[in-house]
Request: fold
Amino acid sequence: MGSRIPVYRPHGNVFFAILGLILTVIVVFILIGATETAFQAMGFTRIQVILILAGTFVGSSINLPLWRIRGLDRVVRVQEVRSFWVTYRIPRVSVEEVSTLLAVNVGGALIPAVVSLYLLFSHQYLLLSASLGVLLTAILVHLMARKVPGLGIATPALLPPLAAAVSAYLLSPSAPNIVAYVSGTLGTLIGADLTNLGGIEKLGAPVLSIGGAGTFDGVFLSGIIAVLLV
Reply:
C-alpha cells in the first residue's frame, strides 16, 4: 500500500521567474495604456503618443552632462591601531574636496519639458493658468523636498501630481488636462530639482541626473499621474 501522506513539492526557480516576467509585462502594459490615455486626453494623436513614448524609453538611458559641482566637506575616517593584542579605532576628521557631476536625463526630464512647452505654445490661452499652476506646485514640492545622502532629492510620491491636479481644477476647470500636465512636469522639475541644486555635492553621489531613476525621480510620471487624476 502506498503512502497517503501528502508530499509538498516546491516549484522551481523557473516557475517564479516566469511568474515575475508575466507580472512585469502586465504592469508595463498597464503603464503604457495609462500614459496613452493621458496624452490622448491632451489632444495628442496615437502616432504622436507612440513617438513620445519611444523617445522617453530610449532617452531614459541617456544622461547629458551639464557641469561638475565642486566643494569642501568634512570626512570622518576611522583608523585602526593595534597594540598589545587590542585594536583601537581612532576617528580622524579631515576636510576633503568633493565633486558631483550634474546631468539631465533625456527621457525623464528633457522630453517632458519639451512636451510641456509645446502644449503652452499651442494653447496660449492657458498660459496664465498653467504658469500659476507651475508656481503653486513648485512651491509646495520645494517645501516638502528633502535631500537624502546617497539618494538625491526625495519627495512624497503622490504629492507633485496631486498638487498639480488640484491646481488645474482651481485655475482651469474647463480645460484641466493640459494645465495638470504642465504643472506636474515643470512644477516638479523646478520645485524638487532646480531649486535644490545648492549643496548637492555633499550628498555623496558621483553623478546626479535630473529626471534620472534613483536620483531626481518623478518629473515624467508626475505629469502623467496629474492628468489621470483630473
User: Anything to note?
Assistant: The two ends are 67 Å apart (CA to CA).
